[in-house]
Amino acid sequence: MSSTCKRTEQHSPNIRIATRTDVGLRRIQNEDNLATLPVGDACVLVVCDGMGGHHGGAEASALAVEVFLRTMQQPQQSEFQQGFAQRMPEGVQAANWQVFQAARKRDAGTMGTTLVAAVIQRDGIGGGHQLHLANVGDSRAYLFRNGGLQQLTNDHSHVAELVASGVLTKEQAAQFPGRNVITRALGSEPTVTPDIFQFPLHPGDTVLLATDGLHSEIEDERIAEILRGNTQLDSACDALVVAALAAGGGDNITVILAQLQAGTEPTEMDSPATLEQFPERRYSPPPSTQRAWLVAFGIALIIALAAVIVWRELIPIPPPPQEAATPATAPATGNQMPDTSRLPAPPNVQPTPEGRKKKIGVRK
Predict the structure, then answer these.
(1) Under a CB-based contact definition with an 8 Å cutoff, are residues 213 and 32 in contact?
(2) Model pTM?
(3) Domain that residue 60 falls in
(4) Within this chain, do residues 168 and 306 fall inside the same structural domain, yes or no?
């Protein structure tokens, strides 16, 4: 069996965690990275899947994990619990910037990493626990509840877009040759927009974070079957990795399992008891993104108005045509047309084609 790293932790009386990472059967180096961080009765989980040759992927994923956790710890302890989950978008942006800068220094244009992170913390209002998620790329977060498994995050990949648009079925997507091309990653641009989700948790719920080395090798139903058959987190981690290896082990495999133990009550505010009651996807864009769109729209409107004013100032308005004098004996010929030969020529304005955004896929 390939080299592995396994760790089990009890982060609080209510949260138990097990982790496992494996290089797989076809890769020389493990470019995945993971970390868990306890904060009082809350915890942070993060998984990254790096990409880029010559150790670039391993460097990118390790850097992203380090910067994300460091950013999450920046506030003082007294402020930490209240604004904890709200710092996730900031942590993702900080990690993205550091990976982007590192790629420029290395002159490694394809250096980057996915990121999926979770914060599990007690809700200060209802007393139950909430799950906060952030993701960029195709590493996933799942919720396992009452024997059922649901994917909570959206893959930022070319094949996921084809499935969403109806071009491919899920069965066809599993065999699609470009399924490892992602459309969003840390480090590919100076800024990145993470998806942000929030869900209530119940005692007994298990959160699974995993790289595509797991879900690209085995189907979700197989993952659920393994979790149903292994109630201990240690054995469940082992079984998930072994199943992915048995299916081919074509990529690095990393999983984190976090289970909310008994001893806490769920919130009473729309806390669904079954997975079927969850919406297909819950997405709330960061407030900074909404403000940025409004500011950009306002600036564009001001520029357009200014352009109209300048245009009217620069283009002279021709004087009204003077009626030509006619002899008294000349017969009336109706309205006289102005002599257009003396009017200024209209400006030569060439239409500019609208720019198109080019989405550059990052192949892992």
Answers:
(1) yes
(2) 0.73
(3) 4-279
(4) no
